[in-house]
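Troubleshooting entry. Yesterday's outputs looked truncated, so today I'm pasting the complete records for two proteins to confirm everything comes through intact. If either block looks cut off, that's the bug. Protein one:
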Amino acid sequence: MERTEALELLKKYNKEEFHIRHALTVEGVMRYFANELGYDQDFWGLVGLLHDVDFEEYPEEHCKKAPELLKEINASEEMVHAICSHGYDSCSDIKPEHEMEKILYAVDELTGLIWAAAKMRPSKSTKDMEVSSLKKKFKDKKFAAGCSRDVISKGAEILGISLEELFEKTILAMRSCEDIVEEELKEM
């Protein structure tokens, strides 16, 4: 599958910049982790790009409608499983099993929290964000209340790392793709 095909599918079912930004960010974060761990960046990136393909139009069927939409681009079973597993225990009973799936599960909500925190900074960027400031935002349940702290904590747990390590790695991953995401959004 080509990225252009995946991006067309994403944009077919997602019109809001917020959702497209999130998809592009998670794509970049997944590519970063794949590179760090020696996996296929393209595949991990596509999974990140399409992980919420059904969320905007079908929020009540999130992770349940995705397999049907992904058939439009002949997505592999591995991709469908990975995408559906990121909603484990909230909207899906598919458990994240592979390392990629566990990372997607762990970073999905966290990227939202980091982006919300970045927008509050004078720089409006992750490039100067410190883990300590993110920890403060994480503890403030009113800040970015839609980002599940339980899922983020559980994500760190299933990866076998501390929250602080997950925060640090995900901030670095977001820094690595922030400019690319901004450029791509300008072109849309």
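Protein two, checking that the full record survives here as well:
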Amino acid sequence: MFRKLPIVLSAEQLLERSFKKAKKIQIIDRSAIYKKKKTIISRTDSFSTSIISALEQYVKKFPSIENLPSFYQEIIDIKIDINKLKKSLGAVDWARKTCQMIYSKQSKALKKSKNIDFLIQKQHEIYGRISSVIKQIDGELVALAEAQNIMKKFPDIHDIPTVVIAGYPNVGKSSILRRLSSAKPKIAQYPFTTKEVHVGHSERKEKYVTKRFQIIDTPGLLDRPLSERNEIEKQALAALSNLADIIVFVIDASETCGYSLEDQMHLLSHIKKMFSSSSLIIVENKVDRKKTSSKNLKVSCETGEGIDVLSDEIFSHYKIEDIDK
């Protein structure tokens, strides 16, 4: 969805590119006066339309924020700030309209006159006024470029039944995603390895039906109030609140994740209350290190123990009507 966003140039880059393009134009005419006149007009037209067209593309090819799925809206607000983004887009569109007005008014005078000095003066006037407008929005162009670079890295989320893997940092969520799907998220033995949302897919054919799940690995959550949660944790909550049909809550009973079992169970109780409309599968990971007597599903991403059982449990929740949601 966001991969094809245009590269947004800074004010200096945009002006430099437009000037270079204009300077390459050279009109051929038998009359020396008409040759100069046509060249001046063509160069001015090229410079102006290049600027205006670029600004139009920056705004036009940007997806309408209000029409985006709620998950993307929330992620944009977390990582960029929707109000700042709208401000940048508004400023760029204002500049487009202003540059268009400047060129429309001044270009008429260019076409009517045969006085070369007057034409050069008008050309410089158009160049100067348009350049001034572009320099005014340099900060907004930079902000828009930064926003688009962030958005181009957003995962592609599809409207299909979705499993969201949640739990404390370093309990093995990413390892479970790797085991259940073809996704290859980064894995390391320290908290908050997962700083973004990762997406994988898993499917199986049963009789005449192909059951397909989207599986999402989220950044780790800590058991603390929303006001104290960082940007990384808020992404996990956005996935849980907007996407989860099934929540796979991962527990590390061995506590090698660095967090006590008591804290993990406390977070689980909050997840149950906050997302009661989603199906919940509780999984104890790292059972090759420690296995409790609880009734929770037991898995080990190291040995593969219990992974097939977990997969079966996930697919047992598959509903045909989910594909039409």
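Both blocks look complete. Sanity check on protein two: DSSP finds ten helices and six strands in the chain.
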